[in-house]
Amino acid sequence: MKRVIAVYDVDPFYADRFAKVANQKEAVPFTVIAFTSVERLKRYMEENSVEILLVDAGAREMVKDLPARQILTLSDGELQPVEGGIASIYKYQSAEGILREVMASYGAAPEESPVAAGVPSTLIGVYSPVNRCLKTSFCLALGQIMAREQKVLYLNLEDCSAMAKLMPESFKGDLSDAFYYYRQGNYNWVKLATMVYTWGSLDYIAPVRYPEDLSSMTSEDIKGFLMCLAGEGVYDSVIVDMGQFGRMAAEILDSCQIVYMPVKEDIISAAKIEIFEEYLEASGRQKLKKRIQKLKLPYHSNFSRREDYLEQLIWGELGDYVRRLLKGRFHEQAVG
Asked: Residue 268 domain-assigned?
């Protein structure tokens, strides 16, 4: 069961709107409850525990003695300095921005953070030894379309990803930070939630800032990170867009229940596929080889502007291909 964030603001509509948006965010391991008065808040806290209390800056003195684990004030102007352990957050920013600041503050606390519990996520690996095969375009179309029916997280494991240029965000956290926390033994879902952004219908974590942050990770590091993330059960599916890991790719793909491999039909591309399959046989990974589903993706040439990329991706030829693919896969699961 999720823990509680209680919200009180002098504007009851603000608190209600924030709670509705926050409760739609699967990355947030809390239930957000809005309160219209301090009296109702106090009565609730007499019988229920509250992990985080978000209150209007003007009500700071009235709630400072309430037994919430952490209290944060919502400021409509200049942020107030930390006073008595109570920090401030600017209230007139996006709900996502407020939640990231709340999670960052909560995750920095020394006590144990809550862990989301649920059915482990399905890991979907997308990899190809062939270059320029529409792998990332396929991942993004797949993620956007799947996210309309279920909870989906997208991870890009390329050392030089285009994501940072495509997304209209200024990232405060990315996979470089997530990998650092994991390797230091300080990983938890609350910290990871501060790095989750949304593009269209799809949640994602921004790729690494520098190629070195990825190359310093071993295949066991990445596999362990993915298994830890999937084990949280926050998302139904996690799409892993693999980079050019060479033979390390097979070890990472071993952790994926579904593996898609975009292919091309030219002689060089076919030879690369053969070499990778021979490696799987030689390394005793016949089971992984059987799980790989090769895809001949439709090439698209009608993408004109970066601003329209998402809509063109979903409703173009590639989007139609993905919808047909998913209908076939879901049907097979239903009858199998």
From this structure: yes
CA proximity to 316, closest of 302, 329, 306, 295? 302
Rounded to 10 degrees, what is the CA torsion of 156, 157, 162, 165? 60
This prediction has a pTM of 0.77
- pLDDT at site 336: 39
Q: 279: Cβ–Cβ under 8 A, 6 or more apart, which residues?
A: 247, 250
Write the CA distances from 113 to 27, 107, 196, integer angstroms. 14, 7, 17
| Whether 21 and 83 share a structural domain | yes
- What count of residues does the chain have? 336
Are 196 and 204 within 8 A, CB to CB?
yes
68-109 confidence digits (pLDDT tens): 888 998 988 665 555 555 688 888 888 888 888 888 887 655
Task: Kindly state whether residues 322 and 231 are assigned to the same domain.
Answer: yes
CA atoms within 13 A on the CB side of 246: 3
Angle at 323 between CA 322 and CA 328, to 5 degrees: 95
- Amino acid present at 87: A
Residue 60: CB atoms within 10 A of its CB come to: 18
**Closest Cα to residue 247, out of 284, 274, 225, 279?**
279
3-state secondary structure at position 271: helix
Q: Which amino acid is at 48?
A: N
Into how many domains does the chain fold? 2
Domain residue limits at 301: 122-335
Backbone torsions φ then ψ of 298, nearest 5 degrees:
-75, 125
The beta strands (E) that lie in the chain are given as 3-8, 30-35, 52-56, 70-75, 87-90, 122-126, 152-157, 196-199, 202-205, 237-242, 258-262, 292-295
Share of the chain above pLDDT 70, in %: 88
220: CATH = 3.40.50.300
CA dist list (Å): 280 to 16, 275, 289, 292: 54, 9, 7, 11
Q: Do 51 and 142 have their domain in common?
A: no
Domain CATH for 30: 3.40.50.10850
